[in-house]
Write a structure and sequence with these properties.
Aminopeptidase; single chain; six-stranded mixed sheet; alpha+beta
Length: about 110
Amino acid sequence: MVSLRAEGRLTGYVQATVTPDALGSAAEIAWVIGRSWQGRGIATEAARGLVGWLEDTVDLIVAHVHPDHAASAAVAAACGLAPTEDVVEGEIRWSSPVARPRPMPDD
């Protein structure tokens, strides 16, 4: 849940569905912010927080954004995701592999 303490209101939510992936595990993320609170950076802050929390857990982060929804595309970009060529049910798949240091092989 996303809340604004100053206003004492719940304003929306972020969610992640984590599943096994061919390369490890993937998290599909989404965000929903009530219309009255949109345009204030709330979705970006909440989604970035979710991505930051997931980075230690998954190998890939994915979101689906409608091509006409510039605000959601901006949130996805702010989270470090980039659009792909994949379109699923009319939405563009955005993704970003999680950059983690890989162990160096022993010499």
